[in-house]
């Protein structure tokens, strides 16, 4: 798989067919996490704490198995900060989907991720162009409109939890930037997150956890396939994508999730969700795809 390079004219080259295929599979895996979690929790097949524990445990096992097959088990690393961010993301994600529709949850999640990463860049001194500022403001306006009271507004508790999940995933992504071996680092973070999930599970035992067979199956599929294998495929896809392309394609996940939720769960795609989706994703796209002007590039 060849790396993405700029053409002599400065434009971004088209990714190879293999990268496009891997990217498509990865986006489906990301959307599948929302669908599987919603399937399990909306039907009361498993409690959110158990779902989180099974998801993290099966994801850790799948990633460890991949490394074992590649004979790289000793290369497992990661950090406790990354593990904590991963645990907060997964836990808040599970509790949020008790009430949120799949499409709304995915939109809030990825909107919060991008806003977190852009805000962090601003705090660190990066400058935005005028179109990027407009896009950032547009995305925030879309999130505000989605959360404002009225018909079709998501439950405030669920929305808050999903936004917290997105902030945690944004932090996890920022912590992983520059990682030499993303697969080994992700495996290490999953393994470190296991005791955190186990402690939460021990506390939840007092409330009487509920785990039915299909709920357990959905959690394993979410952890081992959609998370473990999905993240591995995504890292492979990133080798053939530019940073702009890698960020942009993730905007497809809320759309895929909303469509899949309508088909698999019978969830409606409301006018409010559609308009807010266009506003949020359009604003984020402006931030991502707008190129800095030549003066600022030269200054750097």
TrEMBL record:
Superkingdom: Bacteria
Spans traversing the lipid bilayer: 12-32, 52-69, 81-100, 106-123, 130-150, 156-175, 187-207, 213-235, 247-266, 272-290
Pfam families xref list: EamA (PF00892)
Keyword Membrane: yes
Keyword check for Membrane: yes
Annotated localization: Membrane
InterPro entries: AA-Vitamin_Transporters (IPR050638), EamA_dom (IPR000620), EmrE-like (IPR037185)
Coiled coil: none
Main location group: membrane
Residues in EamA domain copies: 19-146, 157-288
Keywords attached to this entry: Membrane, Transmembrane, Transmembrane helix
Entry's Gene Ontology cellular component terms: membrane
Membrane topology: Multi-pass membrane protein
Protein name: EamA domain-containing protein
Organism classification: Bacteria, Pseudomonadati, Pseudomonadota, Alphaproteobacteria, Rhodospirillales
């Amino acid at each position: 798989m060849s790396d993405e390079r700029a053409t002599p004219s400065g434009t971004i080259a088209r990714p190879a067919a293999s990268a496009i295929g891997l990217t498509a599979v990865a986006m489906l895996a990301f959307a599948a996490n929302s669908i599987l979690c919603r399937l399990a929790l909306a039907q009361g097949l498993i409690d959110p704490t158990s779902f989180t524990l099974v998801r993290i445990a099966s994801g850790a096992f799948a990633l460890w198995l991949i490394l074992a097959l590649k004979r790289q088990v000793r290369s497992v690393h990661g950090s406790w900060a990354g593990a904590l961010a991963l645990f907060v993301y997964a836990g808040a994600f599970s509790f949020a989907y008790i009430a949120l529709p799949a499409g709304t949850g995915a939109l809030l999640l990825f909107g919060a991720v991008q806003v977190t990463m852009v805000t962090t860049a601003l705090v660190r001194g990066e400058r935005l162009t005028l179109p990027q500022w407009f896009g950032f403001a547009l995305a925030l306006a879309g999130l505000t409109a989605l959360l404002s009271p009225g018909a079709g507004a998501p439950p405030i508790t669920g929305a808050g939890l999903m936004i917290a999940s997105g902030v945690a995933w944004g932090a996890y992504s920022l912590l992983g930037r520059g990682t030499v071996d993303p697969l080994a680092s992700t495996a290490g973070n999953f393994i470190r997150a296991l005791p955190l999930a186990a402690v939460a599970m021990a506390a939840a035992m007092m409330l009487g956890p509920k785990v039915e067979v299909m709920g357990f199956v959905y959690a394993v599929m979410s952890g081992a396939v959609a998370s473990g294998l999905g993240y591995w495929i995504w890292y492979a896809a990133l080798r053939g994508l530019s940073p702009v392309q890698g960020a942009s394609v993730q905007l497809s996940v809320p759309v895929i999730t909303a469509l899949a939720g309508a088909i698999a769960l019978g969830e409606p795609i409301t006018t409010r969700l559609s308009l807010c989706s266009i506003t949020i994703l359009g604003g984020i796209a402006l931030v991502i795809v707008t190129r800095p002007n030549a003066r600022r590039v030269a200054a750097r």
